[in-house]
């Protein structure tokens, strides 16, 4: 029973959701970017979350070797990936990036989707805060034993 | 006598450990609410405790401290297991966390923990009263 492990779990959730929020902002900010640094239109960025298995001390392996190891270690961001859905083709001959037919490849960012994801991220963040506060209040309560 | 003195608190202590583990697992569930393919985890303790209490099986007597207890439910031997719940499906991405039930479990567990700490404090208060012969 490591005491601060619980707090770390919630903290990993907070970090992940905050990064998700950053990426959503990035997507919305670049909703009309037709040229990135390598010259291609901007592609929507998505996060890949992965469960983190907790670091178990050696003593725990000894005491319950037969127990199925279920990791309790929070969440981590595996990678930031590009959304591979096709880019939007819009007819805009006046755009300098237009091809010879007058079509421009616009980023595959859907602002509505981003807004919905933003709400989801912010709610998940709040849920993690609640878990963190619950852990904290439990720890403080344990200190009162024997008072 | 002196070993019996803390018997009550040993049970409560174990329950506190279970409650803390439960909090950890619920926190983990909440942190992984957006992880694709993640399956909900739960803590198995109450059923083990009930099993140990109900255990009507043959009991062996230990006359030496090196004897292996047979059928005698020592509180230390009750396990606190973390298990995966694969029985339900919530979303298309294979994640089966229901955030509402996790939040209510979190609140429930928090109150349970407070109750247990209160009980342990009470047990110690009783001892102190006995030691002070009823005086303050």
Chart the SSEs and their pairings.
The complex is a heterodimer of chains A (147) and B (136).
Chain A: H1 5-29, E1 45-51, H2 58-63, E2 75-82, E3 88-91, E4 103-106, H3 111-143
Antiparallel strand pairs in A: 1-2, 3-4
Chain B: H1 7-31, E1 41-44, H2 46-54, E2 81-84, H3 99-131
Antiparallel strand pairs in B: 1-2
Helix pairs in contact in B: 1-3
How does this structure look, described?
- The complex is a heterodimer of chains A (147) and B (136).
- Chain A is an alpha+beta fold and 147 residues long.
- Chain A is 44% helix and 16% strand.
- Chain A is built from three helices and four strands; from the N terminus they run αβαβββα.
- Chain A has a two-stranded antiparallel ribbon.
- Chain B has three helices and two strands, in the order H-E-H-E-H.
- At the A-B interface, helix 1, strand 1 and helix 3 of A face helix 1, strand 2 and helix 3 of B.
């Amino acid at each position: 029973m490591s005491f601060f492990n619980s707090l770390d779990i919630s903290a990993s959730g907070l970090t992940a959701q905050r990064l998700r929020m950053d990426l959503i902002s990035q997507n919305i900010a670049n909703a009309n970017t037709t040229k990135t640094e390598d010259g291609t239109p901007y592609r929507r960025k998505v996060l890949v979350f992965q469960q983190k298995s907790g670091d178990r001390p050696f003593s725990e392996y000894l005491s319950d070797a037969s127990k199925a190891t279920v990791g309790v270690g929070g969440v981590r961001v595996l990678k930031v990936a590009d959304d591979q859905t096709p880019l939007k083709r819009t007819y805009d001959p006046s755009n300098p990036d237009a091809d010879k037919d007058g079509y421009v490849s616009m980023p595959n960012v859907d602002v509505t989707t981003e807004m919905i994801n933003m709400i989801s991220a912010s709610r998940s963040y709040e849920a993690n805060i609640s878990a963190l506060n619950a852990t904290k209040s439990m720890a403080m309560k344990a200190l009162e034993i024997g008072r | 006598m002196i070993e019996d003195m803390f018997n009550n608190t040993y049970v409560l202590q174990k329950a506190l450990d279970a409650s803390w583990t439960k909090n950890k697992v619920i926190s983990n569930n909440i942190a992984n609410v957006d992880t694709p393919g993640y399956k909900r985890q739960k803590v198995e303790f109450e059923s083990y405790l009930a099993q140990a209490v109900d255990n009507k099986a043959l009991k062996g007597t230990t006359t030496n401290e090196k004897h292996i207890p047979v059928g005698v439910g020592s509180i230390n031997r009750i396990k606190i297991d973390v298990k995966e719940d694969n029985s339900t499906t919530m979303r298309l991405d294979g994640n089966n966390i229901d955030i509402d039930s996790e939040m209510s479990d979190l609140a429930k567990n928090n109150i349970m923990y407070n109750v247990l700490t209160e009980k342990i404090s009470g047990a110690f208060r009783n001892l102190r009263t006995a030691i002070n012969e009823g005086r303050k």
